[in-house]
Design brief:
CATH superfamily of the largest domain: P-loop containing nucleotide triphosphate hydrolases
Number of helices: 14
Structural class: alpha/beta
Keywords: ATP-binding, Cell cycle, Cell division, Nucleotide-binding
Protein name: Cell division protein ZapE
Distance between the termini: 55 Å
Order of helices and strands: HHEEEHEHHEHEHEHEHEEEHHEHEHH
Strand order of the largest sheet: 8-13-12-11-10-9
Strand content: 15-25%
Shape: globular
CATH class of the largest domain: Alpha Beta
Pfam families: AFG1_ATPase
Organism: Devosia honganensis
Number of strands: 13
Helix content: 40-55%
Radius of gyration: 22 Å
């Protein structure tokens, strides 16, 4: 059988396929946004760097996309579809604040070097140079939101150099460009970056009357207690509700130079066993990274804890803190009621806070709340 030709609009085709499987409710605003992402993708493919005299020419930046809208409108899902459709390897996707953390770490490392001790050294150039040397063509940033003056004063030069070096930006945000760093200190110095952002990206609004993330949790019992097939069945049902019926597939989360295996991920949600997260050498930065990558987590088989699981209990405390601080929604199966989970003497105080947070994370108020930005 002759294979069907690839769709000329792969992002929209993937979106329509999800709608056809009833994994999502069709939304005209989301469909239009998928079309804008297809435009960026087509432009990127059309400007593929050419080899000249055995070397690749400098890549050409194309006009990207800045997609903004309130929480739960499907921005992350659309970015998932777009990033998966990009056919080349020189692409990166991460949370905006994680990207800026990398930039600041690069600046700090350069300052410690011999060249960095030169008062005339260009710190921004030093950070951008290895990014461009890696061949990066596409930078996808989730939740673009500027809070502090350090980032605000850095962005114009940083992205000016990235754009000049051929990097295309696709970003999602809860706010329009003109509302970035609103009421911030010395905001007039930030305005050139807003102008640059609007010049180098198409700004698209994603209006919607529904918060689709909230609908998935409305009226749900997110915690299950007990062991055996009933607990598993309850989490299976919750997982399919969160993913719109998508079974999901294994994936990875990149964290501080290592890869965290994700047993199942789909539609902005991830599913782990307790051991996958709390009986492996993971720490706060890993859990924060997971909290930034997913809107919702399903965790199977949280056991009763005590002295025999002291290290696992400590990681569980850190995990719940990270999810709670971010506002990530949690569905989980517990072997025993929350008050019987237990902890050893060393973690008893912290565990009480964890139990309090778990209780709140079942509430309608928590489940109706949007994600919180890490810098807030």
């Amino acid at each position: 059988m002759t294979p069907l030709p690839a769709s000329p609009h792969p992002v929209r085709a993937a979106y329509e396929a999800l709608a056809a499987r009833h994994a999502l409710t069709p939304d005209p605003a989301q469909r239009d946004a998928a079309g804008e992402l297809d435009r960026v993708l087509a432009d990127l493919v059309a400007t593929k760097p050419k080899r000249i005299f055995g070397l690749f020419e400098k890549p050409q930046s194309v006009r990207g996309l800045y997609l903004h809208g309130e929480v739960g409108r499907g921005k992350t899902m659309l970015m998932d579809l777009f990033f998966a459709a990009v056919p080349f390897a020189h692409k990166r996707r991460l949370h905006f604040h994680e990207f800026m953390d990398e930039v600041h770490a690069g600046v700090a490392a350069f300052r410690k070097s011999k060249k960095g001790r030169d008062d005339n050294a260009d710190l921004v150039e030093a950070v951008v140079r290895p990014i461009l040397a890696s061949g990066l063509r596409l930078l996808c940033l989730d939740e673009f939101h500027v809070h502090d003056i350090t980032n605000a004063m850095l962005l114009d030069r940083l992205f000016g150099k990235l754009f000049a070096g051929g990097v295309t930006l696709v970003a999602t945000s809860n706010v329009a460009p003109d509302d970035l760093y609103r009421d911030g200190l010395n905001r007039q110095l930030f305005l050139p970056f807003i102008a640059l952002l609007k010049e180098r990206t198409v700004v698209a609004d994603l209006p919607s009357e529904q918060d689709y993330r909230r609908l998935k949790f409305a009226g749900q019992h997110v915690f299950s207690f007990g062991e055996g097939p009933e607990a598993r069945a309850a989490m299976d049902a919750m997982w399919l509700r969160l993913t719109g019926g998508e079974a999901g597939a294994p994936g990875v989360v990149e964290s501080v130079g290592r890869r965290i295996a994700v047993p199942l991920m789909a539609m902005g949600a991830a599913r782990f066993g307790f051991a996958d997260l709390c009986e492996r050498p993971l720490g706060t930065r890993d859990f924060v990274r997971i909290a930034h990558q997913f809107d919702a987590l399903v965790i199977d088989g949280v056991p009763q804890m005590g002295r025999t699981r002291s290290d696992a209990a400590k990681r569980f405390i850190l995990l719940i803190d990270s999810l709670y601080d971010r506002g990530v929604k949690l569905a989980a199966s517990f072997a025993v009621p929350l008050e019987q989970l237990g902890a050893d003497d060393k973690t008893a105080f912290e565990f009480q806070r964890t139990l309090s947070r778990l209780t709140e994370m079942q509430s309608e108020e928590y489940l109706a709340r949007g994600l919180r930005d890490a810098a807030e």
